[in-house]
Write a structure and sequence with these properties.
The structure is a homotetramer. Chain A is built from 16 helices and 13 strands. By secondary structure, chain A is an alpha/beta fold. The first copy, chain A, has a single domain, classed as Divalent-metal-dependent TIM barrel enzymes (TIM Barrel). In chain A, the strands form four sheets. A six-stranded parallel sheet of chain A has the order 6-7-9-11-12-13. In chain A, helix 2 crosses helix 14, helix 4 packs across helix 11 and helix 6 runs parallel beside helix 7. Chain A is globular and about 65 Å long. Chains A and B meet through strand 2 of A and strand 2 of B. Chains A, B, C, D: Keywords: Isomerase, Manganese, Metal-binding.
Amino acid sequence: MNLDRNQITDCNKQLMNFHQQELDIVSAKLDQQGINSEEVIADIIKLQVATPSWALGTGATRFGRFPGGGEPATLEEKISDVGILKQLSGQTSSISLHIPWDIPDNAEEVKELAASYGLTFDSMNSNTFMNDPRGANTPNGLSYKYGSMCNTQEAVREQAIQHNIDVIEYGKRLGSDSLTVWLADGSNYPGQANFRKQFENVQDSLQQIYKQMPEDWFMFTEHKPFEPNFYSTVNNDWGSNLLLAKGTGERCLCLVDLGHHLPNTNIEQVVSRVIMEKRLAGFHFNDSKYSDDDLTVGSLKPYQLFLIFNELVEYMKGDEKQDNELAWMIDASHNTKDPMEDLLQSFDAIALAYAQALIIPRTQLNELQFNNDVAGGQELIQNAYRTDVRPLIREARMRQGGAFDPLAAYRALEVRKQLIDARGTRVAVTGL
Amino acid sequence: MNLDRNQITDCNKQLMNFHQQELDIVSAKLDQQGINSEEVIADIIKLQVATPSWALGTGATRFGRFPGGGEPATLEEKISDVGILKQLSGQTSSISLHIPWDIPDNAEEVKELAASYGLTFDSMNSNTFMNDPRGANTPNGLSYKYGSMCNTQEAVREQAIQHNIDVIEYGKRLGSDSLTVWLADGSNYPGQANFRKQFENVQDSLQQIYKQMPEDWFMFTEHKPFEPNFYSTVNNDWGSNLLLAKGTGERCLCLVDLGHHLPNTNIEQVVSRVIMEKRLAGFHFNDSKYSDDDLTVGSLKPYQLFLIFNELVEYMKGDEKQDNELAWMIDASHNTKDPMEDLLQSFDAIALAYAQALIIPRTQLNELQFNNDVAGGQELIQNAYRTDVRPLIREARMRQGGAFDPLAAYRALEVRKQLIDARGTRVAVTGL
Amino acid sequence: MNLDRNQITDCNKQLMNFHQQELDIVSAKLDQQGINSEEVIADIIKLQVATPSWALGTGATRFGRFPGGGEPATLEEKISDVGILKQLSGQTSSISLHIPWDIPDNAEEVKELAASYGLTFDSMNSNTFMNDPRGANTPNGLSYKYGSMCNTQEAVREQAIQHNIDVIEYGKRLGSDSLTVWLADGSNYPGQANFRKQFENVQDSLQQIYKQMPEDWFMFTEHKPFEPNFYSTVNNDWGSNLLLAKGTGERCLCLVDLGHHLPNTNIEQVVSRVIMEKRLAGFHFNDSKYSDDDLTVGSLKPYQLFLIFNELVEYMKGDEKQDNELAWMIDASHNTKDPMEDLLQSFDAIALAYAQALIIPRTQLNELQFNNDVAGGQELIQNAYRTDVRPLIREARMRQGGAFDPLAAYRALEVRKQLIDARGTRVAVTGL
Amino acid sequence: MNLDRNQITDCNKQLMNFHQQELDIVSAKLDQQGINSEEVIADIIKLQVATPSWALGTGATRFGRFPGGGEPATLEEKISDVGILKQLSGQTSSISLHIPWDIPDNAEEVKELAASYGLTFDSMNSNTFMNDPRGANTPNGLSYKYGSMCNTQEAVREQAIQHNIDVIEYGKRLGSDSLTVWLADGSNYPGQANFRKQFENVQDSLQQIYKQMPEDWFMFTEHKPFEPNFYSTVNNDWGSNLLLAKGTGERCLCLVDLGHHLPNTNIEQVVSRVIMEKRLAGFHFNDSKYSDDDLTVGSLKPYQLFLIFNELVEYMKGDEKQDNELAWMIDASHNTKDPMEDLLQSFDAIALAYAQALIIPRTQLNELQFNNDVAGGQELIQNAYRTDVRPLIREARMRQGGAFDPLAAYRALEVRKQLIDARGTRVAVTGL
């Protein structure tokens, strides 16, 4: 489904009150601080965030699922939905697939379809946290109940390794160039497992997968402290993640999911550390208050998101670079919102935090910090945070033919209604 | 299924080395502190913990489910499983049902069946956190996606109220005398809901259900800070729970689930407060490290469990009493253990903590506390905690014809194998 | 010390670029949403936050203290400092004293001095968490080592009660009308104390103090989960606080300190609950990431602060009212910032959050919430939060003769240098 | 002061009821599991824990200090107190000093004095978290207000480096062979500091100190997530600590303080990771519920302590070894207990956890874990934890001429009274 570009333009017209005036003032004020607003707009346009295929349907908690309607049931429909998001927001130009939920039986056609929407394929996600529902079709049919790559049983580890190699193969056909490995591996009870042996098994398994990866691919490992294992996980924090990445190979990098941290963690400092070690893969964006809540980006801790982007902009505008491009992806679960609305709000929050971080005068910040001007340093970054940068983001969107306010346009154009009309109220079953 | 009592006795014989000697010493030492070990044994026998019907099958997380075999698919099989647990441990003599998972179509027969195992029916659990899978069969077929009793839509609230009244009806036929209300109601995002209006709607709904409750019934409300709602819940902590209970009626009491607290909460003090207000319903026992992990009781924080029982024993041995008997129930989820093994370990941990709390010399503790003897007070309760009270627990079990070591007997008698032989490896679907 | 009003005006002139333009646009946009910006400005001016006397000097942690210079050593100098803050920000018109740190030996003169700066006396703070340094001068000279009002020893409790009565007397002479009671009472170890007896002792002590309070006074009780006691505190959370307040009397209310909560607490919901019970005293504003960090308001979680003000505005603009005016106070500790700068930044953050909450279209929010428009409700309040309301705040300040940017003016006018010149680099010793 | 050995023996006689019987049974039962109780006793005797000099006086929180009497005011008195602890418990044979609180002006005499009590000098602790109270006497007199080794100002960093080199010099004279570096360095506010530059400055400073260390010395770096800095710390977690240690040199190792972790951290897994990387320095033992509460070891989370010792015993009884001996030290703060009583209780808890970990049948545990016997693995280690190992610990103490129950003997012999008689009720001022 493609939205009519004229309709988007019509929507924009009704909302654009004051836009030019606001854009002019914010640009003039930034100019006084030595910030070029045109460059900021260009940077906003460049930041493209991948949409994960599983985020297009209603998510679930262990306490049930409340599906909406018009959800995509096939890979083709998922691609179509991302196309809509791209048209409206101008912020997403790739899709991240999950195997076995999104096996592309006809990779060439799928790739062409995506290209017709201007979309490419982002990192491929393997799944060894559930048993493959295809059961007998899988090579060994062994269970991941007690872990996959960490398992004491060699046959289970081999099945997990082979699954990841299969995922790489799917990815190669689609033009992806990275594999994301999140493992549920760990333990539920003290006494159940040996921390070190589990770690060594995972390390060894990752090395074997790494060897099968094309030379221009990257592997992303993702840490998480708990859930679905509730006593320990193998890749539990950035320290373990960094050890695993370094132990695997040069192109093994650490992915940071914003919800995968213990209470009160200073996530922006974690980002700084991983960048310092040149091992940052990129992000799984979402927000949370208690655990891995997988809520809309920026809905609870927008200032933290800004501080994370502050670290990222320091890196992106700095001299020292990693070999990889940073990977940006949403990873949220939408239980009570229309998934497309949730994603549009998430793109919005990301653009906002990024733009706020871009307008921090870096040289001045460095000087204040060097002089131990504690109040001054805080003031400078809060001034950027408190600036209403939405005129810059809206301008970036409209220059791409997108919507002034994507969520408002999505509603005005009755996109969900159209999807329900086309697909019915059936429930897609792949994903959490 | 009934275990052969002789087989249990045979198992016991092989394990009873040193038992009498240990029992004699611990009894003699307790005697020196003025504690009568026979009374402790009698108290242990009296503490009967209800088994929830949903804990007899493998649980799930939102990341999947790894079922074992021989799980009970019908209410009759569930009752049979609790019968086995009772025989082995002597610690559980009732079952707690969950509607709509355990609708007793023929209540009289079910009641008789339970009685044949020496079992009665504990508190009835309603469910308004999922939509009834029976769909069209439900009176209104409205969705709880945005909450049940807190919902802004009156029709949804009425459906939730009616469901609870239905559950009471089922319970009356089975001889239960209480209704447990745990609500998932809350919100996922700031801005989504009005805290106060949600609270008032829940308060009003509870009052309406309360009016329909028989006069000898109790209502138990259960608080939880998050999950499946991740920004706010209506009955979020003991403070809210107490307000709701008082606002509902004299026989509305606060149920404490050990996993439903924010990080670092002093749960034993919560228990003290609720007892002080004469509103303690009882417990949902489990253990956790991060959130509502629903792990085996005592597997992670056994000292906390002991401190909670310290509060309970103070109440139970004190003069001031509530009108209700305290309700004891397990509420755990077993994803990687045989559910029956998990339950037997949980009973063990509860008996241990209770016995340790029973042997604290209360008068001496009061004196040390009155004299601000900080080290002395700690020393006294830790002395009780460090005492190996297992001889007392084993004695209590054997006097009831149970197993010296229930888990060992369960394995020696190959109970799970027998259940698989009888029921197959089919997967039960009711429960989380 | 009084700042020269012309100098402030001169400072303003240099910073006021775009001010009028920005004010016009924000006003026009608010107007479209039915919000009158003049009323918002008037509300901002009305929100006066008390400055605590102890926040005017460098704070300490248990790991030491790094004092700056020019700190106030006398009550008179503290009043003078608050006068400066008032002139610059227009946001503080009262001072909150702490006994025995600020005993006003000549209450009449002190009161007149304050009045000369346009200042009054806010809530009086008692201190039973330290032993009075005056030692022998205190009536009994008993120690609070094992608690004050919770103490098992009646003589200690009586001393604590008498101290609070003395504080009321000081307050009466100064024109204050409330007593703030924060207690460190609790325990460090399981076994040390009986939760319930401690609670009952505190309850009884508060009742005795309450009886001695003038009939137009309010008592504010303040909860805190830990520190300096690290196992339990008596007034540990809002639930306990509410019980104590209700048990004490109608004019006993619950004070909320933003740093006195367990990790992940939904503080805005706590506020809603206490308002619902008509027991909100007001706030001790600060910010924190880990525990009671006592950092500058809004420096870490500005969105949470906004959500709290969202609850407050709902109450303030609603129909149902408590008998008391809400009490607003900073309670921060400044270890590495100039205390005056820290306070100016805190006033700024408070005004910002308040203004953002004021511009939420309430009727529309209620409608979205009633219709379960989850994304819509979030969008509406985030739109308010993302609006740059600083033009309104600056306008409010300037209309009072204050500074466009108080921190910038404080620096431009070299206030700290003047204070050091006048007072030297000596170190004040009262306070934490 | 030396206690009369006969008096200790007399105390023991009154308490030894049942001791031999209990020892025989526990030994026989362990024997059945293949555990030699004599070896356990020998291991208990070998585990010697250092006493920190600052733990001998009453600690403080930022809310004040409640000193007891008879506290040691000089280094000589501190050594004497450790001598008493050694006599009673047999568990501490070294003392850990803190510079500038314990500068040994006459190192030879101090060393001899210690030797006369059978004591040596454990790791030396530097202090750059406070400004040296000697002020002008320090080489530069610069302030650590904005950090020490992380400071942007080179002169401050050099002062901190020189201080550490001075501490090494003191240590060399006393026969110590390690330097412990705990830094308060970090920041209080976002914007205040650059995470990476702070880290690099600390790394560089540590390298410079390392170069000045004798070749047989070790450097211990200690991480902590917050306090006294409340937004970020430089050495914030084990991941940062490991990077710093590896970046400094082979003999730079990671010290683990049990209170220096975010809420819910799996500390035993942290220990496993650091051992896996062969960088474990040892421990600062204490206990806590909320933050760095510095409570008596084992007073709140004894099971966690056991699980940590489980990891340690696996290492100690395993084949792969680090070059260093593990360093064991208490690091607690005693605000409401007699410090000597607190330390005796801490030694007790450490011996208990160690003995419980020693009696886990390791081969069986490995087998259960290999077979994914989740309930079995838990059962095995809980069986060890639930065993009353106190007879073994008492035997270990008595074989060294110590007390059956050190705390009881300390009280029976009225040690504190003797200390007060000798030293008065004066207050020592060094330490927190």
